[in-house]
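hiii so um. not sure if this is the right channel but i have a protein structure encoded as tokens and i wanna go backwards to a sequence. like what aa goes where. can anyone help
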């Protein structure tokens, strides 16, 4: 979000908290991209704010309630607030329990164990959800439409369009078992807490093979996850790189330093295996410390 939208989003979140009797005189921005993540104080609530029409907050809240009840390692909604999405001034606000970051970060073994428990719990949840191929379609639509991706070079447009279609067929042809997934369980969506790792940001939940989730996590985590189909994981890693590349070229994308990702990911896909994980790419592209 730009500075004006951030200011408006903070005002919306604090107003919602105040209307529920939660004191929120201060707000610290924890993450800012297409959505805003805030720590509200002194009530110590974690707020997520998205523009109306760019969120599936009601789905996320309902799913979070079900997963918490099933004992899954997910961040619970904020106590003292009705568990729902709150529209306010052009934004939708959801309120969650805030956890102080813990050091050291979650170990790969604990990360994998938590993700496996999440998957086990998700198999008990019956909720309508999109299939992972809907995400592919979204990326293909961005690539195919020059209005939506006006700065995407023609060569990369043709390359990404072809690679997305090929990977979609390859993954479907394997016929792997599918279930409800987190959708993007990368390290940025995992909280290290005293209660162990907890997953946040359930808006991307979809149905697919577990390897689609594993394609978002570090290789060391995959090494601790049981019964991984390595060929399917490789295909899903390529798919994730291609989808992220497409989204970084979309008009209005606000991912930090997104253009560098949009340029680098097609290059990595052309270079061939071994396919890097997103955390590896992110570390490579991170700006040097000031």
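sure thing!! here u go:
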């Amino acid at each position: 979000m730009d500075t004006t939208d951030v200011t408006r989003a903070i005002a919306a979140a604090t107003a919602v908290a105040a209307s529920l009797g939660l004191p929120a005189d201060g707000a610290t921005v924890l993450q800012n991209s297409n959505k805003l993540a805030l720590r509200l104080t002194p009530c110590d609530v974690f707020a997520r704010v998205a523009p109306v029409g760019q969120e599936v907050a009601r789905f996320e809240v309902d799913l979070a309630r079900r997963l918490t009840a099933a004992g899954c390692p997910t961040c619970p909604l904020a106590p003292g607030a009705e568990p729902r999405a709150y529209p306010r001034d052009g934004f939708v606000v959801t309120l969650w329990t805030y956890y102080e970051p813990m050091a050291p970060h979650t170990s790969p073994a604990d990360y994998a164990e938590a993700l496996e428990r999440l998957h086990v719990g998700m198999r008990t949840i019956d909720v309508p959800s999109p299939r992972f191929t809907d995400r592919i379609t979204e990326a293909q639509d961005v690539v195919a439409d020059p209005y939506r991706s006006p700065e995407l070079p023609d060569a990369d447009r043709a390359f990404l369009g072809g690679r997305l279609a090929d990977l979609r067929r390859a993954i479907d042809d394997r016929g792997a078992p599918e279930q409800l997934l987190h959708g993007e369980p990368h390290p940025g969506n995992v909280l290290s807490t005293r209660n162990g790792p907890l997953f946040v940001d359930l808006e991307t939940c979809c149905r697919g093979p577990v390897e689609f989730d594993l394609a978002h996590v570090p290789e060391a985590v995959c090494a601790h996850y049981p019964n991984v189909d390595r060929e399917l994981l490789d295909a899903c890693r390529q798919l994730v790189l291609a989808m992220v590349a497409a989204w970084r070229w979309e008009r209005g994308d606000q991912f930090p330093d997104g253009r560098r990702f949009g340029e680098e990911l097609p290059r990595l896909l052309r270079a061939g295996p071994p396919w890097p994980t997103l955390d590896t790419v992110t570390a490579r592209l991170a700006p040097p410390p000031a």
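oh and DSSP finds ten helices and nine strands in the chain.
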